[in-house]
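ok so i was messing around last nite and threw this chain in just to see what happens. nothing serious, just curious
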Amino acid sequence: MDDEARRGIEAFRNWVDETKPGRMVFFGGAGVSTESGIPDFRSPDGLYAQKYPHPPEQMISRSFFDAHPAEFFAFYSDRMLALDAQPNRAHRKLAELEQAGTLSAVVTQNIDGLHQKAGSERVLELHGSVLRNFCMDCGAAYPVDELLRLRDEAADGVPRCPACGGIVKPDVVLYEEALDEHTLQASVDAIARADLLVVAGTSLAVYPAAGLIDFFQGDHLVIVNRTPTPRDRQADLCLAANVGDVFDF
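result:
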């Protein structure tokens, strides 16, 4: 790490120390969880760089789910689940900042549940969670281990509800699906009230989530990402670093 990066990280940490209680918000993407062994999407070794019969972004779309559920669940189970992953330095520090009263909310595009596993309580999951699943017909809820058991027991690999026979769908937002309005509004409200907004581990390329940054009116916008984003010019500080390194304090 060069001197400029060190100075930038020091400035960020000073802003954290100076932030009034409850006036910091963290908005994170896939890069927050790479240190936990979960691949991101757009890096050279990310999910979209892998070779599959169909493009990954197509295989996790609602139209593909409806038309080819068996192929969807084979891909989903192989590439989208990382149930043994553990929280990393960033997850743990964010939980600590929440417990200290500094951080008011984590807004995340991730579906891995690692923020809650680290101890964070106010987590706004824009794209849902792999840990929750529900029957599309009767609405019955199933934990992820039950989803996998039902998938393994099904002749075609498609998990179905024992009560009614409906397909059990992960509670994740697929391409072509809308975000949950309550979660989206809660995220807008949290960001609009923040004095310090940290955007980390996201390319800011997926909308409407990327548009949340437009609701920030506070003092300091910090972007932490290994590669440039379309919003870097709006930031007070850009840190081209691993998220875990920035939050290791």
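not much to say yet. The CA atoms of residues 221 and 236 lie 5 Å apart.
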